[in-house]
Each structure stands twice: as C-alpha cells, then as structure tokens.
Amino acid sequence: MIHILYFEVTDTVIHETNIHELIKRYPEEERDRILRFRFKKDQLLSAIGMKMVEQKFGNLAGWQRTELGKPFLDKSNIKFSISHSGDYVVAAFSQIQEVGLDIEQQNVLDFSDFTPVFREEEIEAFEDVKDFFNSWTMKEAVIKVLGTGFTLDARSLYLDHDNMTCKNQGEWLLKRVQIHEGYSCCLAMQIGTEEDLYLSKFTL
Predict the structure, then answer these.
(1) Closest to 20 (Cα-Cα) out of 42, 44, 38, 3
(2) Nearest to 4 by CA among 50, 47, 52
(3) Are the CB atoms for 140 and 102 separated by under 8 Å?
(4) Which distant-in-sequence residues (6+ apart) come within 8 Å of 58 by Cβ?
(5) Which of 167, 110, 101, 109 is nearest to 140 (CA)?
(6) Where do the domains of the chain lie?
(7) 2-201 is classed in which CATH architecture?
(8) Which of 93, 114, 174, 178 is the one with CA 20 to 30 A from 188?
C-alpha cells in the first residue's frame, strides 16, 4: 500500500511554528537550503515535507540527494516522493517501488509559455486550467519517479488520459489524488506493481 500524507500550511501554522525548532535535527545542508527561501511559508512547505519523512522513518539518518536533487534515505527499503504547491505539501511512501508524486495549484496562466513541456497538439487540446494542471502533474509525477528532473525532455512523454498511463521512459500507471479543490495531484508507479492508496492528514 502506498501511504500519502498531506498538510495545509495555514496562516495560523505560519504564525505559530518556529522554523528553527522544526528543522533543528535536519542535516546542515538541508537546514541551509530551507532557510534560503525568502518567505516563511516557503520554508515551512519544504521543512514539513522533510518532517513527514522523519516521522515515517523515526529519524533522517542517511538522508541524501542524488546528483539531480532527488532525496532518498540510504540503506532504506522505503521509497518516497515529496511535492508542494500553494498551501499544500504532500508525500508518498512505498515499501516495494519507486514512486513519483506531484501537486500543483491551478493558477491562471498562458498555456503557450509551456512549449518546452508540452507538444503543440497537447497545448491545443487543453480545455481549461484544470485540464492543463492535470496533464502537468501526470508528466511531473513520471519525471519524479525517474529522478531525472527536467533534464528529461517532457515533450517525449506521451500521456494516455483514458487509461491513465504513460508508456515512454518505462511503463507507468498514473493515479489522480484528490487533495483540495483548486489543486491537481498525481502519483506515478510502475505498471504491474500497482498498489492501493491510503490518504491521511499529517499533523505536526
């Protein structure tokens, strides 16, 4: 079973949370990375994603990042993926496979600015902002499970919206996750290793 945690960073959380206390046990390079964010809300979104991992594992011993920035815990068989956007941070955990999770707030934008991510026929097919971000999170979930970042040409990913799959760069099953109105969220896992999803709210 894949466990997905979610948390909303409200104004109350921003006001009441001591960021330095929250991250005091984090690796030094991660503390520095978090504190480089200008706004406390962004600091908290990043810090709480790590807190989800810390709570799940009991500690952050072995926390590392790949050369392309994907975090992992050395010598652990539990795989995880973290994402945040707007007011929400989410994390997915699996004991049997790599997973990729992405959340995006559905903001108004110009679809034509995203030609590095979507092919022309994809952009022309978008009906609204929700449609765009559903597709965006599908692609980014695959990119995150692969751990490539956008060194991978996202236009090479062909999405099957009817079957919620992507069969480029491997074979991936995509599952939409309902977090909150106005957000798109998607999880990627390998076809043939499907797991049920368990969603729960995280508490600090």
Answers:
(1) 44
(2) 52
(3) yes
(4) none
(5) 101
(6) 2-201
(7) Alpha-Beta Complex (3.90)
(8) 114
Largest CA distance in the chain: 49
Written as one letter, the residue type at 87 is D
* Dihedral angle of Cα 42, 139, 55, 195, to the nearest 10 degrees: 160
Residue 131's alpha-carbon distances to 17, 19, 138, 151, in angstroms, are: 35, 35, 11, 24
pTM for the whole structure: 0.94
Ordered per-residue pLDDT tens for the chain, 204 residues:
999 999 999 999 999 999 999 999 999 999 999 999 999 999 999 999 999 999 999 999 899 999 988 999 998 889 999 999 999 999 999 999 999 999 999 997 888 788 889 999 999 999 999 999 999 999 999 999 999 988 888 999 999 999 999 988 889 999 999 999 999 999 999 998 889 999 999 999
Q: Specify burial of residue 143 (Cβ count, 10 A radius: 0-12, 13-18, 19+).
A: buried
Alpha-carbon span 180 to 116, nearest angstrom = 28
Return the CA Rg of the chain: 17
Contact 73, 64 (CB under 8 A): yes
157-173: burial string, b at 16+ Cβ within 10 Å, e else: bebeeeeebbeebeebb
Where do we find the tokens 């009441």? 16
The sign one gets for the Cα dihedral 41, 43, 49, 53 is negative
